[in-house]
């Protein structure tokens, strides 16, 4: 894949340590850029449209700074349950509330990714179904108190204790649930013709 990308300097516009870890696992060299943007979206948007929109907004916030030999990757992840978004929790009580909603149900995790150069932009979303068994309040409190999932959509990290103790099934990419569908990113980067 590095031959395909030899004409580009790869940039990752993300503060997420998990996205950094996942992109690094693809054995590509990249630099981190700091991007700040408004992460609101039109209220009529549903499911995968939301993280695609936000990933594009992040890319557009940085696009004027892109050099001709740079390719920017931006992403956003949401948890979707019963037609509603569960974003990052505001505090401990909000995290517990979200986990109670997810308890005993199957939800969707959507990650939107945007690949941007000076010339073009391509965006896509990946979806994974995640099922949780019923969680006790004690388990929810244990997880929130010990893992502090305040920077995670839906108030959980699949790679943490709750994923091992409570996840009963995943249909789709595990890494998408972590925050980056690396299989799709790898395919898009290999076939890139931006």
How would you describe the overall organization of this protein?
It is a single chain. The protein is of the alpha/beta class. The protein has a single domain, classed as Maf protein. Helices cover 33% and strands 26% of the residues. It contains 7 helices and 7 strands. Strands 1, 2, 3, 4, 5, 6 and 7 form a 7-stranded mixed sheet that branches. Strand 1, helix 1 (17-24) and strand 2 form a beta-alpha-beta unit.
Give the arrangement of secondary structure elements:
Blueprint: E1 9-13, H1 17-24, E2 31-32, H2 49-62, E3 70-81, E4 84-86, H3 92-102, E5 106-116, E6 121-132, H4 137-147, H5 161-166, E7 167-171, H6 174-178, H7 182-190
Parallel strand pairs: 1-2, 1-3
Antiparallel strand pairs: 3-4, 3-5, 5-6, 6-7
Helix pairs in contact: 3-4
Compute the CA-based radius of gyration: 17 Å
Total domain units: 1
What's the CATH architecture name? Alpha-Beta Complex
What is the tally of beta strands? 7
CATH C-level category: Alpha Beta
| Gap from first CA to last CA | 15 Å
Please report which band the strand proportion falls in: under 5%, 5-15%, 15-25%, 25-35%, 35-45% or over 45%. Answer: 25-35%
Q: What is the count of DSSP helices, taking H or I runs of 4+ residues?
A: 7
CATH topology: Maf protein
Helix content: 25-40%
Name the helix and strand elements from N-terminus to C-terminus, one letter apiece. EHEHEEHEEHHEHH
Q: Catalogue the unreliable spans.
A: none
**Roughly what is the average pLDDT, rounded to an integer?**
93
- Basic shape: elongated
Main beta sheet, described? 7 strands, mixed
Which structural class best describes the helix and strand composition? alpha/beta
